[in-house]
Amino acid sequence: MPGPFKWIRNNILLQVFITLIGGALLAHVVPICCSSFFYSVSCTIKDILTYVLPFIVFSYLTFSVISYDEKAPKVLIGIFVGVIASILLAVFYSYGIGNLILPEMVTHPIVKDLPGEVVDKMWGLPLTGMSTDRAMLVAFSFAMWFNALNSSYISRIRNSHIRKMEGQPCGSICKSVLSLGVFASNEHLMSVKNGVRKMKDMSEWGLLKLFVPVIPLYVLGFIMKFSMETSAGFIIKDFGPIFAFNFGCILLFVAFSFIVAANFNIKTALVYAKNMLPATLTGFCTMSSVATLPITIQSEEKNIPHATEFARLIIPTTVNVHAIGDVINVSLSGLALLLLTSHGLPSLSVYACFAIFTCIAQFSCVSVPGGGIIVMGGILQKYLGLDVDSVVLLTSIYFLLEPFLTSMNVAYNGAFTILMNKILNVKKV
């Protein structure tokens, strides 16, 4: 194969970029049935990935937590506190900048429907499996118990027991099973750890050899659907300034996070952001942080090569609950809609209640298109004071921004991982 084509074949970032441009142009020159076909293919790949993703998450998280041994509780608590602080910071950042600028931007109400051509799937796979959240819970529980079995206290009990049970292998194995591994031999525990490592290696092989090569096809259908369905003229005319303002605020927040992660070294921050580009663009096309998870981990391992296991721990852990782009967009859009419906902006005390419940709601979100706004709808009504019609309008508009929001969620999690690694001072294990 000639040199330039070989370079394209080996450069996944360039492939995704070409797919973005080609898919956007192709969507407007082919019949809608062609867009539906490619969208169905993309959804099929996504459905298969979503089906096997719990296994991938289980293998990654279990091995990562096991690798930290007795340090795991400290690391996980640090991640949890970091996520809470990050979400609250984003919500109050939205309040501050919204109070400063939105009253000058919003001058008239918007009451219109959302036109646009709809691209539907031609087929679907009836795949149902364990949820990612349940897989995470099982992985954490298993890995934390395994780490407890290797603690110094239980190790002394186990070694003392094994000495007493020498010559009685069957009894020792039976007691090990009944005690959930407390009396398992060190060799058995090591075999379990090696088995988890093999699961993780198998997951990596599958992602690299089976999923990564079809990423261009994976994103093609999504970008064609997005191109066909975002031609609503009134959105550009009436809500366009809010779109631009929201995206600018999100981009500023994410960019500053990379700068902070790079210790205010602009050159290093640009390197970090460049390494995250494949994941950011994939998130834009798929509109799912979970579906982008394999690429996010790959990208982030380039930013913290000294702590790759930490990246494999924190990214799957936070992928569902740490959607900063969604948080900022929903907060700013909610404030804008209050003004558009002739309501005033909320006081700081009222907004604080909204911030707290927004933070809690993020732990109920699922990383699928529209998942964030579905969970936030009731909170926007109850704690921010939006009426039902405003929430419906915000939900409709949210879907038009979903690709941008997901890409920013993915990018910010890259910066967040670097920051948390520095705060927790996690080294390679």
Describe the structure.
By secondary structure, the chain is mostly helical. It has a single domain, classed as Sodium:dicarboxylate symporter (Proton glutamate symport protein), CATH 1.10.3860.10. The protein contains 18 helices and no strands. The two termini are 40 Å apart.
**CATH architecture annotation name:** Orthogonal Bundle
What is the 3D shape? Answer: globular
Under CATH, the topology can be stated as Proton glutamate symport protein
Q: H/E series, N to C?
A: HHHHHHHHHHHHHHHHHH
Distance between the amino and carboxyl termini: 40 Å
User: Which whole number gives the mean pLDDT?
Assistant: 77
CATH superfamily: Sodium:dicarboxylate symporter
How many strands in all? 0
CATH class: Mainly Alpha
Over all CA atoms, what is the radius of gyration?
24 Å
The percentage helix is over 70%
Strand fraction equals under 5%
Unreliable spans are 111-115, 231-235
